[in-house]
Design goal:
- The complex is a heterodimer of chains A (162) and B (68).
- Chain A is mainly alpha-helical.
- Chain A folds into two domains: 95 residues, RNA polymerase sigma factor, region 2, helix turn helix motif (Rna Polymerase Sigma Factor, Chain: A), CATH 1.10.1740; 54 residues, Orthogonal Bundle (Arc Repressor Mutant, subunit A), CATH 1.10.10.
- Chain A is 74% helix and 0% strand.
- Chain A is built from eight helices and no strands.
- In chain A, helix 1 crosses helix 3.
- The longest helix of chain A is centred in the N-terminal third of the chain and has 23 residues.
- Chain A starts with 7 loop residues before the first helix and ends with a helix.
- With 68 residues, chain B is mainly alpha-helical.
- Chain B has a domain of 47 residues.
- Chain B has two helices and no strands.
- The longest helix of chain B has 48 residues.
Chain lengths: 162, 68
């Protein structure tokens, strides 16, 4: 049953404000446009049916990120085929031709590092907040950030050395 | 301070956006599914209530008879 009766306009605004954020998080985990879109849709459906009362927009945003990350990780576990990134679809989601190689390498990093790097440096969450969202300890977040930074550095230096 | 490698990662990930046609498509699906779910759940509640009333009206006479 719908927790809150949302009007069509409210649903459109919700999608407009949060879809790219959720899509970005899901894409970093799934590396597939169609799957990421399915995750976005499922996240919004869960929001419409099971969302708790939120204290603030930040609370709502963190809840959406947490739910979308969990949905995406579950989808990843259930997925049999793990193909390479489709470079044509990457252009459709905002990556330019000259960034394709770097983007492909960045997306080839393990999802657990991409998720914490994205939350820390793209969404500007603290280690404590990330720990709450991802469901791991602050210490584990710091370790993943450290390892993630090393992996990014290694990949970028690898590109530059060519 | 963020090193330049992470800046590159941030720049690329920030560029990821959901195409507007896909956003509209998802909004349409959500709008379509929302009332259906509500209608289904209301129907479900109504059907369950009727089922309980019928079950009680059938069972109560039997219980009374068995106590006599």
């Amino acid at each position: 049953m719908m927790k809150q009766d949302k009007t069509d306009q409210e649903i459109r605004e919700l999608v407009e404000v949060y879809s790219s954020l959720i899509f970005r998080i899901s894409y970093c985990i799934l590396c597939d446009r169609d799957d990421a879109e399915d995750a976005v849709q499922e996240t919004f459906l869960r929001y419409l049916t099971k969302a708790p009362e939120f204290n603030s927009e930040e609370h709502k945003k963190a809840w959406l990120i947490k739910v979308s990350a969990n949905i995406s990780k579950n989808m990843l576990r259930m997925r049999i085929r793990r193909g390479a990134i489709n470079l044509d679809e990457v252009k459709e989601i905002g990556i330019s031709d000259c960034d394709l190689d770097t983007f492909e390498l960045m997306m080839s990093l393990p999802q657990k590092y991409k998720l914490v790097l994205t939350l820390r440096y793209v969404e500007n969450y603290s280690s404590k907040e990330i720990a709450g969202i991802v469901g791991i300890s602050e210490e584990a977040v710091r370790k993943r950030l450290q390892k993630g930074r090393e992996l990014v550095k290694k990949e970028i230096e690898g590109i530059e050395s060519f | 301070m963020i090193d330049k490698n992470i800046e590159e990662y941030v720049r690329l990930v920030r560029n990821i956006t959901m195409p507007s046609a896909d956003r509209e498509h998802i909004a349409e699906i959500l709008i379509e599914k929302a009332p259906l779910r509500k209608e289904f759940s209301m129907n479900y509640v109504a059907a369950a209530s009727v089922a309980v009333l019928v079950a009680l009206s059938v069972c109560i006479p039997f219980v009374r008879r068995s106590k006599m």
